[in-house]
Amino acid sequence: MCELLGMSANVPTDICFSFTGLVQRGGGTGPHKDGWGITFYEGKGCRTFKDPQPSFQSPIAKLVQDYPIKSCSVVAHIRQANRGRVALENTHPFTRELWGRNWTYAHNGQLKGYKSLKTGNFHPVGETDSEKAFLLAAAPFNRALSAHAGQYAGRFQVYRHPRG
Question: Looking at 2, 16, 46, 72, which residue is catalytic?
């Protein structure tokens, strides 16, 4: 199983302390050696860092640890692969743009029958059940908004990232 780290704060905060512990469990003190990633939301944008190397050996993870990026919303993931090979495209979190906003997804667990799931106009980049689940969740949302974009204009705030 993978591990997740999330943060939601009222004011931009760095997560260097918590992230440092997660990094060590990514192949150092834990079995999650099959890649890692982290997404920081900043205004309407997001910064995503991912690496298929174990996080405890990753120079990119070291950079993130040493550079205190401040954010109100952060999603981090260390991977213990069960579906899909160890590769950058299979490393979480997954991020997609939809309706001018960035959406991020990370998952812990396994889905049965995921290869037959229909994801509409979204196509996975990698081979994981997690990315397929993300696209599956996004597909009906995209169809509903596309069909009725005008009438959702006043309600869109409910569906988008609360800080962007």
Answer: 2
